[in-house]
Amino acid sequence: MVTRFISYRQAAVLGVIAVGVETVFSAATPNTPSRERIIAHLAPAVVPDLAHLLALVAGLALVVLAPKLWHGTRNAVPLAIGGLVVLAVLNVVKGFDYDEAALDLCLAAVLLRGRGAFRLGCRERPDLAALSAAVGAWALVYCALLVEPLVSDRGRTIKRALRTSFGSPHLSAAWRSFEEVLFGLALAISLLAVRSLLRPAGAANRHTEDEYRAARAIVERDGEDSLAPFILRPDKAFHFAAAGVLGYRVIGETAIVSGDPIAPDGAGLAVLASFRAFAHKQGWHVALWGASARNLDAYRELGLRAVCVGEEAFVEPGRFTLEGRRVRKLRQSVHRVTRRDWQLSACDGRELDEQVEREIDALDALWRAKQRRIVGFAMGMGEWSSDRRPGDMYLLGRSPGGELRAVIRFVDCCGRLSLDTMRRVGETPNGLNEALVCNALEIARERGVEEVSLNYAGLAHLVRREPSRNPIARIGFRLVLAPLHRRFQMERLVHFNDKFSPEWRPRYLVYETRTALPRTLLRVLQAEGYVPELRQLGVPHRRLRMPREVLRPPRVKGAG
Fold first, then answer.
1. pLDDT at 132
2. Do residues 107 and 134 both lie within one domain?
3. How many domains does the chain contain in total?
4. Pairing of strands 285-291, 254-258
């Protein structure tokens, strides 16, 4: 039975944690005198002592398994049930604690009954480094036990020689302490090795050339959403199902899907359902970053939740104009750039020659060298060299001396344009980026482009709706959002987009459970580049370069 705030699975896991912690304290404390006398009549003294030690190990193991149980890892359930059954026996042996044993068996029955609620798979093999370290630690413990008779207080010649050599009259006590430290270290490493057995499967976070070709064909056919082209980044993997595709990146235990699945009408839900089944088998939770509003009802049918995390700015080129007071500052930016003899030009991806490509690469290298971090995931193609498609639009800004100082790329998909990246280096006039975007909108209007997507601004719906009447509320609002403004440049993006009088549309983070939301937010920030990402062991990241004939088909001689 699922309550409003906590599920059956999570309630059972809390019980496992409570039993594990209680067992650790129980195993570390002596038995009551009455039960001690009963046990003394039934078994030798070494048996309850050993049972205390093994119960301590079992309690720690349950605590170590608890996070995996909480996340729903399926293979952790039999391990926890086996540990609880063994613990029930140990509780009887170590101190005749039949009440604790009954609780252990009841909790094991609860896990057995609710094992269907644990759906996540795992890699099903321990980490080789952790396993090797555990074996080595236990080998050291064994060697220490073999050496102990040589240093025990038995009056032997070799023992006296050792004591004389070390110059310590308390060598035996020190050796005992050394053995205990070794035992504790071996136990800790062993528990980590067991936990590594339940780790999620690793992911390559890249795609092959054949997968790229197939995904690109689907994007060009069904990519109606403005974020659709950006799934083709080299650092994303693809999942194909129901004649559709989605792009994702795995960080830790979370698979972050880039935007909505791309598929024929009505098939997006089937693509996502197929991917969730695949992801859960690998031990991954699923989240969609930058999902559109039109698919929210379908996502809720799968039991997913959604929260608005920002807004995307859209401009209709046919309605865009530089006339009027509202765009006065934008008009001034364009005139300022023109007065200073800066040269603005535009070309398509098919028109880029080798000389311009080299200029763009050099500018991009200079720009990247000055950046503390490179951000972007759901709305960015990544490096300039990753994908230069024929229909993409490049806006170039050159100084009066002809040097390339600014480049903006708009990605083409299904008759729409989406702003990809903006690069600017050196001394440039204020408003250069605005002038380049205006140039792009004018060209888009001439070509009959229906819609141009600008930046996706995180939490833009909060920035644009800042309380204005109540001064106290306004101050409190700014105090709360000030750290976010500095870190994520929210206010700057909103103000830049607002200059073009856009239409704002919400974007959502779609996630699985309330308890998974904090972890999901962290993984999204890591994917976007705002928080450092720890590389997964065994899965090195390698940038994938597509062959030039894939990225840009050769021009036919004589073609326009």
1. 82
2. no
3. 4
4. parallel
